[in-house]
Amino acid sequence: MDIQTLRTACTDCQKCPLGRTRTNLVFGVGNPEADVLFIGEGPGEQEDLQGEPFVGRSGQLLDKMLACVDFSRKENIYIANMVKCRPPQNRDPSPEEVNACLPWLTAQVEAIRPKIIVCLGRVAAIRLIKPDFKVTREHGQFFRHNGILRMGTYHPAYLLRDPRNKPAAMEDLLRVRAQLEALTE
Ligand code: URA
Fold it and tell me: 3-184 in CATH: which number?
């Protein structure tokens, strides 16, 4: 299924209770032919209001960091979340909510067919890389799953709270850029 058909199919999703409290479903944004797919946790307040991922403060930081390595949601990457609807009070999505939403994300991955998936933060990394993934210890490492390289790095909201890890997060993004170039040479 192509990404537009998928977006339409997803619009009225009520597979979990988050469907009842959302303002807008936040499906994803970017180039549907991107080589790199970034996956966050779930929409926050601004994302819920605007229907687009990472448009609040952490999104502004993410866009700036991406621009340093020539990635842009308008051109060459795609951005989605583990859950497509805002968890109330910005709590972490529950495992049940992540499970209910996972088929949408799997279908997005199948439609986009990225070469690299970057997990932004723990919620995405424990689900898409391995259950005991530790961001502080394993960020920046590549793991291969089903022919796709996967990496976990710091969530931009965490970097806003603790900017000391910004250089390490930038190094992770540089590794993504270098790996992509090696893959497409
Ligand atoms: N945090 C996320 O994980 N995703 C968003 O879309 C916004 C903030």
Answer: 3.40.470.10
